[in-house]
Amino acid sequence: MELAGVDPGHGEGDEGGRRRRGQGELATEVLSVLHRAPGPVTASWVQEQVGGELAYTTVMTILSRLLAKQAVVRSRAGRAYVWSAAADAAGLTARRMRRMLDTEPDRDAVLASFVTALTPEDEQLLRSLLNAAEAAPGAGGRDDGR
Amino acid sequence: MGSFVFLPLVLPLTSLPIARLAEHHLHPRNAVRLLSWIGVTMAVCSTLALGLLFVVGTAQIPGNPLPDSWSDPEIRTAVPFHEEVGTAAVAGLVTVLTACSRSLRRHLRIRARAHRVLAPMPLDSDLVVLPDPEPYAYAVPGGPGRVVVSATMMDSLDADEQRALLAHERSHLANRHHRYLLAAQLASCVNPFLRPLQRAVGYATERWADEEAADSVGDRRLTARAVARAALVTRGAPPPAFAAFAAPGPVPRRVTALLSPALGEAWPPPASPAGLAAMVAAAGTAVSAVSALNAAVALLLLVKAATPW
What we know:
The complex is a heterodimer of chains A (146) and B (309). With 146 residues, chain A is mainly α. Chain A has a domain at 3-103: Arc Repressor Mutant, subunit A (Orthogonal Bundle). Chain A contains 5 helices and 3 strands. In chain A, strands 1-2 form a two-stranded antiparallel ribbon. In chain A, helix 1 packs across helix 2, helix 1 (14-36) packs across helix 3 and helix 2 (43-50) crosses helix 3 (56-68). Chain A starts with 13 loop residues before the first helix and ends in an 11-residue tail after the last helix. Chain B has 309 residues and is mostly helical. Chain B has one domain. Chain B has helices at residues 7-10, 15-25, 28-58, 73-78, 83-118, 151-155, 159-174, 177-190, 195-217, 220-233, 250-259, 273-306, and strands at 127-130, 137-140, 146-150. Chain B has a 3-stranded mixed beta sheet with strand order 1-3-2, with helices on both faces. In chain B, strand 2 and strand 3 (146-150) form a beta hairpin. In chain B, helix 2 packs antiparallel against helix 12. The chains are: A mainly alpha (146), B mainly alpha (309). Chains A and B meet through strand 1, helix 4, strand 3 and helix 5 of A and helix 5, strand 1, strand 2, helix 7 and helix 8 of B.
């Protein structure tokens, strides 16, 4: 994650540069807090973990900038937003999706699955169909009839 | 009227042959629409019949809120019933309503849950690829509809096959297949005899999406290969209950259909076996509807005449 570029165009003045650098470091810290987090967390949780004298609004500002850079993702949990690091988001979503699929066995009418699992007989039949199709002349080519 | 009032409860038995014929002879799009309509009509009629039996059979049971006159002798001669039938109808109605509301709630819950799970993923594409070792691909309906595919499933297909898979899932979303599936599911909750229809609608929606995917990638054989290879990496089917009688499952049948020439989209001519079957199905549904309506209207008139106010 190109954190160095959290806020490009800094370093005009001595004072300004120090302040911006400080923000860049804070962004790194916020992000590492999110990486350590057990799951999506609220901004106030991040504020606690970062510690120090950081104001809630500062944390929110950092999070929004990270969001704009797609370094973090947020989702709604009840009335508040929860945040997680983007690199983790896909993995986290995958785990939650899996948990959902495992706990909702009767989902056929809602979520149309591409294929259903095969019985051993089906598997054998399918392999022979596949072989026949691939052995057929013009296999893989464009055809609309046969 | 007589025992015609029972007809709507029993006619759904015809859904098994209807489903078979539709699967073999109709373009899947027509099959889905026809079967869903038949299912919903038969379910409504069967509920109506249950309601009639309930009203007439229970109106004289002490403590019920219905006017006793609703079960007057002349009404009783018009509707064949006994109190047992009426009581059974109450149980039936309660079961039907419970099952339907449970199905509906589950449908909404699963949809909401899937959208909550997917909420953090960026919306710039309807495709979400998740890093999961389990191979799967799902269409998640609702605004906005999304296609969820595990990275393992993507990796097991080549680029062309992936296009076929995405076209298939997008066809589910674009044609709102979940509505037909829900309608068929609710119908089979209302009358268990309609269960073959539910299975047939499920299969026909998959075929419909397969056909659209084949049109979209312009290659039936490629689509067949995508379905077959995706199924072969998806493992762990429970052993069939009656292995000896197990017919080929839905996936081999889909692949076979894709390897055969496409069925025409036009309705079959009335003289052909398929056309005849469609007409028989429509006639059966119509008889079911007419007998239910006939019973309802006759009862309504009688009850109106018998009601003192």
